[in-house]
Amino acid sequence: MTRQNFPRSPKALLGGLAHLGRFIDKIRLRNAGLIQDYNYITVGFDKYLVDFLGIDAKAFEQRVLAGGADEELLAWVKVHGCKPSDEEIAQWSQELLASGPNDDAARRRFQGRLEDIATKRGVPVESLPPVSTWVDVIELDEERM
Prior knowledge:
The structure is a single chain. This protein is mostly helical. The protein has helices spanning 20-31, 44-53, 57-65, 70-80, 86-98, 104-121, 134-141. The longest helix is centred in the C-terminal third of the chain and has 18 residues, at 104-121. It starts with 19 loop residues before the first helix and ends with a helix.
């Protein structure tokens, strides 16, 4: 996978929402056959986002694939979702961006992701920048760190 095929950062806010722009990019890139090895819709941040917004993931996927700018897709979410307040959106986004592994199984997955990144880069895991959140791991994996 080349850098141009990475979806945008989960930190890029759309309507105050972390990950929404990334989710849109993932739908488009996956449909174009440019990413296949990403968590998709039913797990991870995609699922947290879909659940928070109260939208039907498959209906949103179809809407994204029908075309339109980010603002049009955000408007669709506002019409078809549960309409959280600006404060709820800000809190949810902040929590998502700060989330890290919270149990032993998650810590093992986290360490495994770091080991995979180090292997891809051909360096020891200890040489990677220190990270503590899942977003950091994404940023590191997609060469934004």
